[in-house]
Design brief:
two-stranded antiparallel ribbon; elongated; zinc ion binding; TIM Barrel; alpha/beta
């Protein structure tokens, strides 16, 4: 058998094995790969979480999150303007509160002029087209670092819900377009929906942190908002156990029944299966939060030359889209928007 005959025989053998279905055909060129690509990432998929700090002209670096900063309100406005020019549709704000202003009950959350609300008003005045997402959890405001009222070692569910429902109205009044409760208290979505509607904010949406896990990936975030050294105990009595998937489905079902407009899973990459299940089960807008630990790992590995950071960031965001996400909260948002624009 000559070489030509051998090649022909091998081709017949592969065709017999595959039944003539050669799946590499559409991978052979850039144009064909693009033509059959199943998922696409655009700037419309990006939500940028930013950290706030009191004062003026302040831009503070965060050691555990290289490239991420805390901004005073005036500088946060400039960043929101930059994000708008890049086409980023929304930002999510998280405050770093002076420890001297914190107390056991997180009472500052009910101050209409607290850091979150000041930032919302300033950003909405300067960039009215920018969507603003605010969190009503108590942890930035409590002296113990928990998301709720702590008494005798227990988080008091109903008292916490009452506080965050009031806070949600104040945040809506300040210009928040979406309230995103991350505390995981029972009944908080329904209470917030009722409070917003009664106060005349029926157009303000709710993005429920429906599957917020008791994760070890939050460490850098707690440094960013100044709670890393405050937490007494852990949050396992109200966040979802990382071993559970069915529980996340039940949480999402309950949040939707109470009036949530969209769902969120947090963290992101370790819970792609949960994202996919929620999207397939409920067919509602579903989001993921690529949390601080995910960000820090990519940055650290890239800084050490162990990975191609740019490619890994894009691949990680595409994984969210593949799992079913309609959008992603990510600290990489501005640089990804720049890259997509370029």
């Amino acid at each position: 058998m000559n070489r030509k005959e051998a090649i022909s025989a091998m081709q017949r053998s592969v065709d017999e094995i595959t039944g003539g279905r050669r799946l590499r055909r559409m991978r052979k060129a850039n144009w064909s790969r693009r033509m059959v690509r199943e998922n696409h990432l655009s700037v419309d998929d990006l939500i940028w979480p930013i950290f706030l700090v009191d004062g003026e002209g302040r831009k503070e670096s965060i050691d555990a999150m290289p490239g991420v900063y805390r901004y005073s309100v005036d500088l946060a406005v400039r960043e929101a303007e930059r994000a708008a020019k890049l086409g980023i549709p929304a930002i999510a704000t998280f405050p770093n509160i002076d420890n001297r202003l914190k107390d056991e009950g997180g009472s500052l959350i009910l101050d209409a002029d607290n850091l979150i609300n000041k930032a919302s008003r300033a950003i909405k005045d300067a960039v009215p087209e920018m969507g603003i997402i605010t969190d009503v959890a108590l942890d930035p405001f409590t002296s113990h670092g928990h998301d709720g009222v702590l008494r005798n070692g227990n988080i008091i569910n109903d008292e916490t819900v009452e506080l965050i429902a009031q806070a949600a109205v104040l945040q809506a009044a300040a210009g928040a377009d979406i309230i995103a409760p991350s505390d995981m208290m029972d009944g908080r979505v329904g209470a917030i929906r009722d409070a917003l509607d009664v106060a005349g904010y029926s157009d303000v949406a709710i993005m429920a942190y429906s599957a917020k896990y008791a994760s070890a990936f939050y460490g850098p975030y707690r440094e960013a908002i100044g709670t890393s050294g405050l937490l007494k105990g852990d949050k396992k009595t109200y966040y979802v156990d990382p071993a559970n998937g069915e529980e996340a489905v039940r949480e999402a079902e309950q949040d939707l029944a109470e009036g949530a407009d969209m769902l969120m899973v947090k963290p992101g990459l370790p819970y792609l299966d949960v994202i996919h299940r929620l999207k397939q089960t409920f067919s509602v807008p579903t989001f993921a939060y690529q949390v601080s630990g995910e960000y820090a790992m990519i940055r650290a590995a890239a800084a050490n030359g162990w990975i191609d950071g740019d490619r890994v960031v894009m691949e990680s965001l595409m994984a969210f889209k593949r799992a079913g996400c309609d959008g992603i909260l990510t600290y990489f948002a501005p640089e990804i928007a720049e890259r997509l624009k370029g």
